[in-house]
Specification:
This protein has one domain. The protein contains two helices and six strands. A six-stranded antiparallel β-sheet has the order 1-2-3-4-5-6, with helices on both faces. β4 and β5 form a beta hairpin. It is globular, with a radius of gyration of 23 Å. The N terminus is likely disordered.
Length: 149
């Protein structure tokens, strides 16, 4: 009986040690994902006004705000980064147009997974891999499994 209890305590102690190591490893992975996302954002946050709905001659100025969010998805064992760029086109006429672009990337392969563009409150692009969507609500539903697991 004593041997069984001792063996049980040894197994319990080893399993707790393994669990603690596993949690530490997951924390390291999450921290590495955050660092990789920061570097990815810094590398890819060079806005080119000659691409994607470029500023035209009617603009007196263009303002750009970019931000990112990262997430390590443990089910998919992957690190994702969501880049959001908001561009304000200040027209000489006093009118202001807004474009919001959201891009989801798998950092490991630096692959674009999803792209969403809203320009003048109209969806101009909405996709995730080969799936086409038609609204921001649909897009959010598609990317949810990448950013919440």
């Amino acid at each position: 009986m004593k041997v069984t209890v001792m063996l049980f305590l040894v197994v319990l102690s080893l399993s707790q040690t393994c669990l603690a190591a596993s949690k530490k490893s997951e924390v390291d992975i999450v921290q590495q994902c955050a660092q990789s996302a920061k570097e990815f954002f810094q590398e890819n946050n060079k806005t080119s006004y000659s691409e994607n709905n470029a500023a035209d001659k009617d603009n007196s100025s263009v303002s750009v705000v970019s931000e990112y969010m990262n997430h390590f998805n443990s089910k998919m064992n992957a690190c994702y980064v969501l880049l959001t760029t908001t561009t304000l086109y200040h027209r000489r006429t006093g009118q202001m147009d807004t474009q919001v672009q959201k891009q989801l990337f798998d950092i490991a392969g630096k692959n674009g997974i999803s792209n969403f563009i809203l320009f003048k409150n109209q969806v101009t692009q909405c996709e995730l891999l080969n799936i086409i969507c038609h609204s921001e609500a649909e897009w959010k539903s598609l990317v949810k499994s990448y950013l919440e697991e």
